[in-house]
# Entry
Amino acid sequence: MAAEQLGRLSQDLTPPFLAYLANRDEAGLRAAYELGRRAMEQGVSLLDFVRTYNDVALKVLATARTADSAHDIAHAASVFLVEALASYEMAQRGFMDIGLSGSSGRNAAAEDTSGPG
# Structure
Protein backbone atom coordinates (compact mmCIF):
# COMPACT_ATOMS: atom_id res chain seq x y z
CA MET A 1 0.00 0.00 0.00
CA ALA A 2 1.28 3.45 -0.88
CA ALA A 3 2.61 5.68 1.89
CA GLU A 4 -0.04 8.28 1.06
CA GLN A 5 -2.83 5.73 1.58
CA LEU A 6 -1.32 4.61 4.89
CA GLY A 7 -1.07 8.23 5.99
CA ARG A 8 -4.74 8.69 5.19
CA LEU A 9 -5.59 5.54 7.13
CA SER A 10 -3.65 6.90 10.10
CA GLN A 11 -5.60 10.16 9.86
CA ASP A 12 -8.87 8.23 9.68
CA LEU A 13 -7.97 6.05 12.68
CA THR A 14 -6.78 8.70 15.09
CA PRO A 15 -9.95 10.72 15.88
CA PRO A 16 -12.23 7.73 16.56
CA PHE A 17 -9.52 6.04 18.60
CA LEU A 18 -9.04 9.16 20.73
CA ALA A 19 -12.81 9.49 21.11
CA TYR A 20 -13.01 5.88 22.24
CA LEU A 21 -10.26 6.44 24.80
CA ALA A 22 -12.21 9.38 26.21
CA ASN A 23 -15.62 7.68 26.36
CA ARG A 24 -15.17 3.88 26.16
CA ASP A 25 -18.67 3.47 24.83
CA GLU A 26 -20.61 1.48 22.26
CA ALA A 27 -20.46 4.38 19.79
CA GLY A 28 -16.67 4.18 19.87
CA LEU A 29 -16.73 0.45 19.23
CA ARG A 30 -19.16 0.97 16.34
CA ALA A 31 -16.75 3.54 14.90
CA ALA A 32 -13.91 1.02 15.21
CA TYR A 33 -15.95 -1.62 13.40
CA GLU A 34 -16.85 0.82 10.62
CA LEU A 35 -13.21 1.84 10.22
CA GLY A 36 -12.20 -1.77 9.78
CA ARG A 37 -15.03 -2.46 7.36
CA ARG A 38 -14.19 0.58 5.22
CA ALA A 39 -10.48 -0.27 5.24
CA MET A 40 -11.22 -3.80 4.09
CA GLU A 41 -13.55 -2.53 1.35
CA GLN A 42 -10.79 -0.18 0.18
CA GLY A 43 -8.37 -3.08 -0.10
CA VAL A 44 -6.25 -2.30 2.95
CA SER A 45 -4.49 -5.51 3.92
CA LEU A 46 -4.83 -6.82 7.43
CA LEU A 47 -1.11 -6.32 8.03
CA ASP A 48 -1.18 -2.72 6.79
CA PHE A 49 -4.20 -1.99 8.98
CA VAL A 50 -2.59 -3.45 12.10
CA ARG A 51 0.76 -1.80 11.41
CA THR A 52 -0.86 1.61 10.94
CA TYR A 53 -3.10 1.16 13.97
CA ASN A 54 -0.07 0.15 16.05
CA ASP A 55 1.72 3.35 15.04
CA VAL A 56 -1.30 5.42 16.12
CA ALA A 57 -1.67 3.52 19.40
CA LEU A 58 2.04 3.87 20.22
CA LYS A 59 1.91 7.63 19.70
CA VAL A 60 -1.02 7.86 22.10
CA LEU A 61 0.62 5.48 24.55
CA ALA A 62 3.70 7.71 24.61
CA THR A 63 1.54 10.44 26.16
CA ALA A 64 0.77 8.35 29.25
CA ARG A 65 2.07 9.99 32.42
CA THR A 66 2.02 6.90 34.64
CA ALA A 67 2.37 3.16 34.28
CA ASP A 68 -1.28 2.75 35.29
CA SER A 69 -2.34 5.19 32.60
CA ALA A 70 -0.23 3.36 30.02
CA HIS A 71 -1.81 0.06 31.04
CA ASP A 72 -5.28 1.58 30.76
CA ILE A 73 -4.55 2.99 27.28
CA ALA A 74 -3.05 -0.32 26.14
CA HIS A 75 -6.12 -2.23 27.30
CA ALA A 76 -8.52 0.17 25.58
CA ALA A 77 -6.36 0.07 22.43
CA SER A 78 -6.66 -3.70 22.39
CA VAL A 79 -10.46 -3.59 22.72
CA PHE A 80 -10.69 -1.01 19.92
CA LEU A 81 -8.41 -3.02 17.63
CA VAL A 82 -10.35 -6.25 18.14
CA GLU A 83 -13.55 -4.47 17.16
CA ALA A 84 -11.87 -2.88 14.14
CA LEU A 85 -10.68 -6.30 12.96
CA ALA A 86 -14.12 -7.92 13.23
CA SER A 87 -14.83 -7.26 9.53
CA TYR A 88 -11.61 -8.98 8.51
CA GLU A 89 -12.51 -11.92 10.75
CA MET A 90 -15.99 -12.24 9.25
CA ALA A 91 -14.59 -12.07 5.72
CA GLN A 92 -12.02 -14.74 6.53
CA ARG A 93 -14.65 -17.02 8.06
CA GLY A 94 -16.87 -16.55 5.03
CA PHE A 95 -13.98 -17.36 2.75
CA MET A 96 -13.10 -20.44 4.80
CA ASP A 97 -16.73 -21.59 4.81
CA ILE A 98 -16.90 -21.27 1.04
CA GLY A 99 -13.59 -23.10 0.66
CA LEU A 100 -14.59 -25.88 3.03
CA SER A 101 -18.03 -26.37 1.53
CA GLY A 102 -16.51 -26.37 -1.94
CA SER A 103 -13.88 -28.95 -1.03
CA SER A 104 -16.38 -31.19 0.77
CA GLY A 105 -18.59 -31.02 -2.30
CA ARG A 106 -15.65 -32.03 -4.49
CA ASN A 107 -14.79 -34.86 -2.08
CA ALA A 108 -18.37 -36.14 -2.13
CA ALA A 109 -18.39 -36.05 -5.94
CA ALA A 110 -15.11 -37.94 -6.04
CA GLU A 111 -16.48 -40.59 -3.68
CA ASP A 112 -19.61 -40.97 -5.84
CA THR A 113 -17.55 -41.62 -8.96
CA SER A 114 -15.01 -43.92 -7.32
CA GLY A 115 -17.49 -46.44 -5.95
CA PRO A 116 -18.40 -49.75 -7.56
CA GLY A 117 -20.45 -49.24 -10.55
